Amino acid sequence: MKRVGKPVFFIVALLIIALAVTSIFGIHVQNGDNTVTYLKGVGDIRWGIDINGGVEATFVPDTDEQVTQEDLESAKETIELRLINQHITDYELYTDPANNRIIVRFPWKSGETDFDPEAAIQEISATAQLTFRPGAEYETTDTGEDGQPIYRTPTGETAETVLLDGSDVESAEAQMYQDPETGSIEHVVALNLTDTGAEKFAQATSDYLNDQISIWMDDVMISAPVVNDIITGGEATITGVDAEEATTLARQINAGALPFQLTTKNFRTISPTLGSSSLEAMMIAGIIAFVLVSLFMILMFRLTGFVAVISLIGQVALCFAAVSGYFPAFNSFTLTLPGIAGIILSIGMGVDANIITATRIKEELWVGKSLDGAIQKGDDNSFWAIFDGNITTIIVSLILMAVFGPTNILSMLFGASTTGSIYSFGYTLLIGNIGNFIFGVGTTRLMTKSLSGFKPLRKKWLFGGAAK
Predict the structure, then answer these.
(1) Global pTM?
(2) Measuring CA to CA, which residue among 147, 158, 144 is closest to residue 219?
(3) pLDDT on residue 418
(4) What is the CATH number of domain 7-28+274-463?
(5) Dihedral in degrees, nearest 10, Cα atoms 216, 46, 438, 420
């Protein structure tokens, strides 16, 4: 057997514990009135309508012009893109051409406390027409909830001239910038312009050098910087926004503007089918089940069972991390009841993988193999059984995600909410099985071989063999 260094067990175990703690609690730092999130935790998960309830709204076009079915479908696609950009899969969205309206249902966002349906639908129903205009002339002033002024309705030259609009923006991203002198953190929206937009922006910054160019979202001025240099790189930033505003603004710009203004005809709160109390009961039951499984593994397989428990903790942590948006490359995900079922099923397969390996090692010890030989033989004999079971489940998960994703032909047959729930099940099942390969196969074997290098632990009965 190829030896593994003794420190490997402690390094791997500490990394798993660190992942578990940070994926559950996240890392949040208070910066003045704003909370800066470095790593998301369970509290940042967006729960589905079936768990946390949600919002239902009916939109009608606010225009005197004739609205065709194609116009309604275009507006629907923009709203749908905004929902997908927020990684909401548990939603229902459809048009009603006969009554000239759009109906949408979607879950509350994570951390929602006010449960105000009217406020919840503002982000997805905003026209979101981004414009760059000369000067900063405005007609009216309101006061926001934070006491700061809000400038509305461009007037004069600012109203007459549009230098760039949303179609000139290729992508938008919310970013953080730290002032090197003061150390304060500023939130911005970084814009990458199209080739045409870059040319327009270079011309605009040349024409209005040392003057203001204001940036507007619909009729609200969100920034009015002074142009200090001619900008030719095709990049621009929007400042003067907090973390939540930057994220919302970037999403709206990426989704594009609605073809017409929408008016909310009616809205209501949707009650959850499960409820927060039932979710808490489910979480307590899950913890109790995990403790009982852990005791069973340790009593049955001793040291290999103890190692398996540590690996299972890592697998559970990975499932939470993949849903909450813990990893920067993977954004948050709407977790529904079927999604929870996918996590539970994948953890069951993780337990099974560890049992197969521990049993193979135990069998080899009982037929007289040396400790190192039994561990190596047990690992080799168990790998393909674990691989076959998990790879077939991964294939099924990918099929579920491809066929029952948020936007596909089956959404028209069964409804977006139904297909979104099945997609959630496939996603969590996929992540859990990938975690099974990482932890149930990878870390379990590393830690087992590492522990076998400690002389006090080189006793066959600790690995399931006969007590001598």
Answers:
(1) 0.72
(2) 158
(3) 59
(4) 1.20.1640.10
(5) -90
